[in-house]
Amino acid sequence: MIDDELLRYSRQILLPQFGIEGQERLRGARVLIAGLGGLGSPAAMYLAASGVGRLFLADFDAVDLSNLQRQILHTSERIGMSKADSAKIALKALNPTVELITVKPSLTQQRLPQLLAQVDLVMDCCDNFPTRFVLNAACSAAGIPLVSGAAIRTEGQVAAFSGQVGDPCYRCLYPDEGSIDETCAAQGVLAPVVGIIGSIQATEAIKILTGIGTPLYGRLLLLDAAAMEWRSLRLLVDPDCPVCAAKR
Description:
Elements: H1 3-8, H2 10-13, H3 19-27, E1 30-34, H4 40-50, E2 54-58, H5 83-94, E3 99-103, H6 112-116, E4 121-124, H7 129-142, E5 146-152, E6 155-161, H8 170-173, H9 184-187, H10 191-210, E7 219-224, E8 229-234
Parallel strand pairs: 1-2, 1-4, 2-3, 4-5
Antiparallel strand pairs: 5-6, 6-7, 7-8
């Protein structure tokens, strides 16, 4: 590790459980970030700043004025630009040592296996159930960890799924698609709430990639920001889960 890297990452290298070994693991890690909006913005920024070696930036949408209240990767000057390209500009400025690969087509069941063969972990920063379900199924099939976040109004949640046999998956938590009106566009969202949840997602990803701490595997962390209260719930395996039951 060169002197510039030692200085850039010195504050986390100082952590006894992290050290240079943890930093080397991050440098060798490859992460897919699915969604570069309110959740994906802080998640991507912290993963890039922390020194994850390669980030796949996936989003088919373009930057809109209504995004800027909470999607801090993007700027007024980049309205109309693809979010993947806008994110690449922001992250390159933040840490030029990280390799950034844009993924602009939709993440489909057909495309994901090839993409997941190139990564160690997936960040679910999406805003719709169909994409979340496709990501979960692909991660479960590939045995790749999935870190999922969601936020709406003044509420948020985070969970991590190992992708391993015997552990719950996202479909164990949500067997059915939610209401189509349960979106930020329909319900609204307080800007810092997505920042909190996205930051926790990044923390969980770094823990999993470096082996420090205890990941949120099998747990759901819930935030009520209006009361600033947290709850943690244990997730159970659904014996009839359409995704992971066949693996058991």
